[in-house]
From TrEMBL:
InterPro entries recorded: ATPase_NBD, FtsA/MreB, PilM
Organism placement in taxonomy: Bacteria, Pseudomonadati, Pseudomonadota, Betaproteobacteria, Burkholderiales
UniProt protein name: Pilus assembly protein PilM
Pfam families: PilM_2
Cross-referenced CDD domains: ASKHA_NBD_PilM
Gene3D superfamilies, per database record: 3.30.1490.300, 3.30.420.40
UniProt organism field: Comamonas nitrativorans
Amino acid sequence: MFSLSSLFQRQPEPLIGLDISATAVKLVELGRHGQDGWVLERCAMEPLSPDWVADGSIVNFDEVAGAVRRLLAKSGTRAKHVALALPPSAVITKKVILPGSLSDAEMEIQVESEASQYIPFSLDEVQLDFCIIGPSPKSPGDVDVLLAATRKEKADERQEVAEAANLKTVVLDIGSFAARLAVERVLQNPNAPLHVGEADLVVLIKVGARGYAMQVLRDEEVLYDTEQSMGGAQLTQAIARHYNLSQEEAEQKKRADDLPASYPTEVLAPFVKNLAQDVARSLQFFFTSTPYHSVQHILLSGGSATLEGLTEAIQEHTGVATLVLDPFLGMQFGAAVNKSRVRKDAAAYLTACGLALRRFYQ
């Protein structure tokens, strides 16, 4: 069941975060060490073929379910509870102001009434939930309420994949929300790589296979949210064209780091430059369409965030300090974790890490 309220409930049993993206399934399991310490108990990834997940929808159910089962076996986890995420494109969210005096039953009725104004299909076809954010700063006595709705089939397909792997879904989150939770934990760490002031604007960019998603944040408020189609898949296409390879061969060689010596200068560098310029254009559009004229930090995540030269290129073209985010900053590593592999791929696990954190965060 799609339930935003479950995001704020502590899960008493071990919980794995399972992020199903376009190119891989990623798993994270976390534990606590003392009052303030964290332990990365398990962390693993299983690749998916490009046509198994398309536009956030699971197209080849059996193949994806099989990949999840292989991932569970590879990780060695015994956990049966799972937190999953829907892609932001599959969820409609809206913040509304409602009277703080409403009872729970009255709040549910009012939420349905409000939701009908924003959802372009029948409420019978959706999973709808809400959470109370807190008192509304704009309207004394009222509360800010976050509504979230998704088509039932979108929620069902993820949960059915989990069930096929003998997992029980206890949290169904939104991918961008889970990622922001992981970012919040990192920035609160005493050894955080940057200090974010109260008025600072932070740009969170997830660079994936099918494109990049950009959010501009101030505290917990999302000021701007956009998705662009330039990502790792375009790099694979460029490799295939330049070296006369099939898409499958190009992707395999890219993942295995098995490309000719000319690759960094002839293929990678031009792609990185184009991607950085595209990010700069997206940021410029934010400036021209909002009252804001600057941002203070850019944080990169996703499987393609660690492309050689990308951090430097984005910083050069935007003039904004840029770094790749490590969601496991400050964590101890459990015995089952391959430390060198995790350090290399850490940025790809941001959403999965945020999902795993739902066990502990209210």
